[in-house]
Amino acid sequence: MTEKRTTAPEILKRAAAHIAQRAASRDLPDGERSMPRAVAAFTALTGKHMSESEGWLFMVCLKAARATAGAYTPDDAEDGAAYFALFGEAQAAAVPPPADPRAPAEHSFGWVGLSSYQPSSLPAGTVVTLDLTENRFTKVESP
Prior knowledge:
The chain contains five helices and three strands, in the order αααααβββ. By secondary structure, it is mainly alpha-helical. The chain has two domains: 8-94, no CATH class; 105-141, no CATH class. The chain starts with 7 loop residues before the first helix and ends with a strand.
């Protein structure tokens, strides 16, 4: 009789179940997870800043270190997968949403100011300055 092998989808399903179970028993009513509080405590104790995603990545490393010491334990793979998913969630939350393509140009660039460049269609040495606050060319200088 052959032993059934554990598959990656099974590990991921169990990891998702662990996240749900722990959220029900340990997260705050507003859905806040424990890592923001844990990294705040770490910063208070050490004076070194750690982001939420870095806290989850630390936990991934901890599970990887444990998984390489001793016999295989399903918990290491399941918790490691869960921690990496939470790392991804924190990373995604830190990225600003994409700009609305219908918004004025100064909003879609994410910065406002003056930009100068050398267009390839103009003679060498010509500098065109674009005022992004007004969305118009303000100066053309030729040699």
